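Section: Multi-chain targets

For targets with more than one molecule, the full set of components is provided together so that the structure can be written out for the assembly as a whole rather than chain by chain. Components appear in the order listed by the source. The example entry contains two components.
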Amino acid sequence: MALQVEERTTIRKVDYNLALVVLALNLIGLINLYSATHGPNSKGMNGLFWSQIIFMCIGWIAYAAGTFIDYRIFIRLAYPFYGINLCLLFLVTIIGKTTLGAQRSFALGPIHLQPSETMKVVLVFVLARYFYNQARPEGYRLKELIVPALLVLIPAVFIIKQPDLGTGLLLVAVSATMFLFVKIQNRVLVGATILICLAVPLGWKFSFKEYQKNRILTFMNPARDPRGAGYNSIQSKIAVGSGRIFGKGFRKGSQGQLEFLPERHTDFIFSVLSEEHGFVGSMTTLSLFGLLFLMGVRIASQSKDKFGALMVVGSMSILFWHMFINVGMTTGILPIVGIPLPLISYGGSNLLPTMLSLGIVSSVSLRRFLF
Amino acid sequence: MNAYNDWIENSDDVKEYQERYSYLYGIILVVFLILFGRLWFLQIIKGSEFKRFSEQNQIKEERNPAPRGMVLDRNGQILVDSLPTFNVTLTPQYTVNLEKTALELAPILSLNKDEIVEKVKTSRKQNGVFKPVRIKENINRDEVAKIEAVKIDIQGLNVEMGIKRNYLLGENGAQLFGYTGEISREELPVLNSGRNEDNKLRAGDIIGKSGLEKRTDTELRGIDGAQFVEVDARGRGVQAGRDLITGGFPDEVDSVPGRNITLTIDKDLQQVAYESMLKNKRIGSVVALNPANGEILAMVNAPSFDPNHFSTGIPTDIWAELVNDPFKPLRNKVIQDHFSPGSTFKAIVAIAALSEKIITPSSTYFCPGFLKYGRRPYHCWMKHGHGAVNIYQALERSCDVFFYHLGLELGIDRIAKYARRLGLGIRTGINLDNERGGLIPDSEWKKKTLGEEWQGGENLSNAIGQGFILVTPLQLAQAYGAIGTEGLLYRPFVVKKIVDADGHARQEFNPVLAHDAKVREATDDVIIAPETFEIVKKALTLVFSGDHGTGHYYRIPGLDMGGKTGTVQLFQFTAESVFAKCESRELKQRNNGWMAAFAPEKDPKIAVAVHAEHGCHGTAAGPVIHDVIYAYLKKYYPDTIAEAEKSKTKKKVVVPKPVETTNEETDE
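Its structure, encoded as tokens over all components, is:
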């Protein structure tokens, strides 16, 4: 009986507020992408705007699919997905196409599959599944954390070696959020903190590539590398600041239009936004993100099972850390790492997994009414 | 329904998380406040400062292009260098009154006012208002001074510095040196794939597009520097407020100049060769090399183009003209095209026949003017025949019938072995791009590619260098050099040295002896005895010194040199039209002429191949061969020339009339 009732009212129970906020962010993204790709010297980039519209359409299909699929199916699919994704990640280092000097994506005809992007979503699946199956209200012990830690570290090491330090660390940040959320024992927490403090200098010495070190050193002292990351950081700050309260106007930002801003359609899209639409525009965008996160936490708290709650917390933390790191780097409070602003930056390989995981959040929201 | 039962069972469990959500709300709030604070600081508190900075004080990274390396000839004479140029630009965004500005600028730049307005308007439509429009390129110093004087009053006006590649020889050698141009969007990812982050090319960079400019681009280009200039967008320098944002920037990163490339080319010889082609109105290519080490001394193609036009962008009409030119001026035909060798191939057939003991120096064949094979008569170019000829006379007079016989006796497979031994049909491995390999056919090749058996008649045509055989001019020069040096095949090379800007040699290229035809090699069982070379060399000398020699008119009196002419029929003609006057045909239907030679006969210093497309006769290449050999020996071996001139007066050789005028056709 419950099933029939659910069938009839499914459409009405969809969380339209959530969809509306996502759509609003999509549109803000398109407006800025148009500006960023139609500068005086960016004739060749005009087409990116249209590809992004296509990505968005596909993204919304993924969102709808995620909404109407019962998210509990991922309890069963989590490990197979993870296995496949890990294989792809492994393969990409061997046959992957070289973009920007790093092995990141597969060329499957016109589509560039980027396993590190899908890995973020799939990792949330497996962690949610693991913690869902093993409830420990008093906190997880070290023994029980070995498996999830490995689940995180194996792909993270691969991605850092690609080398894509930003995405690798993001993976760690997302998992850390989930670990802390499910609660781990205090002594394990203290031990892990000490271990990380020891590991960082060692990793710095042996495992970071020269340019990765440079970026971080440059963040501390922009004059160190005026041609590379330091220049970018400074130009981005100028762009953001010069927008003042109301901005310079659509397509009138000199920093963006005159190409002082690097990668302005991807990593530095927020600078274009802040320059052209000022404090009002950037705060509107940040508020929409804030609203999205608050809705996410609410959906998680209303979930009828732990798996759903964990899926939402994980998916939201992916978005959250992306947003924080990206806005942080464009406003000069974090080092420049190649992390896009979700829903706003150009690029299908980031947008599609994001839309799918938002669809799953929407699915959890839909199914909280089940009783 | 099971799933839903699970759900109900687990629903208690989910309460475990309830009190933790407040932490999440907390984190979101904190991050939101941090970003809010940061944006408040940047946009509200410091906003006006940044705004001023972005509008007036822009730190723009201006690239200091590294000076591109020079290309020098073997004696250090400059062949290609770079010159600074100045271009006037106008940025539409800052131009207050375009009509008025154009009116002011027109007399200074000796341009038409409407022309300027038109240019700016077109660019504004295409590229937007921020893109500076080049009003005039390559302005002179006077104009620079005048523009600088009015710059302060005309907003948006600027003088931009660029570098122009300067090819001192102009059209000569354009295919060898190549040209430069702005990197294209398609080239960017391809060329960057192997480069690390600091070294990446960017849009707008100038790269070598063809020839040596492309081949040695990484050596020539150096590393660009950068200058951090603060200018307002209207081009005026401003100093204030900089430390606020940058915390102190270095002003400049020095560029590393490109390396200089020293070639094996001799500038004077290159000029002699090209001028000789022009003077004689020839289409085709010339290559001269030193057979004793493989150094290329001259490499010329005609018609040609002036790469100086290309260094600041190619006008589309000129480009279209060059691409559509039937004589392919953009191509280095010395290595990138291959042709039938015609009678120049007879020397190789002679070597094969002597080595395989088919003939001795005294064997003769009778030439009645044709040889009947099957039902078809194969004609000799000399309608009435040469009579009984031996190897010396056959090569001297280029008797076709003699070589028809050799072709029949040898068969293509044996000919092919000797041809390959002398480097034909195989890429020479010269350090230039897109070299062609030519083609030496054999029966196996024909079966594989055409699926047909080798026909006996084809032995005849291929023995006189017609048919399937294709050679590049470079291969032919190398083969004749090998005959002259009695078997030495050095790998031809054109880049001799790569030198750092401070004078340190970074890389030096030494001669490589690729093969010695006198020595048996593991890969084939062909060896050519020194006696064989001697006989053929003597016969080839008669081509110039003999009274009936086809190259007699172009000899250097008193000097022993060997060589061979060749004429290649491009179309099948009827029996009468074969003997009709070649010059009466359309240019495209005229025969190709070849001449290859080495000099002096003993211990050759130079080997030359000249291909005169549609020159009608092999002798069309003769004057160029003569000029190149004479000029080279005169410059480097004046004693040899002096001796030759002395012995000439002693011998008092009567200069006979040129072969061309006594016979309507030289060799077939």
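Residues 182 and 204 of chain B are 6 Å apart (CA to CA).
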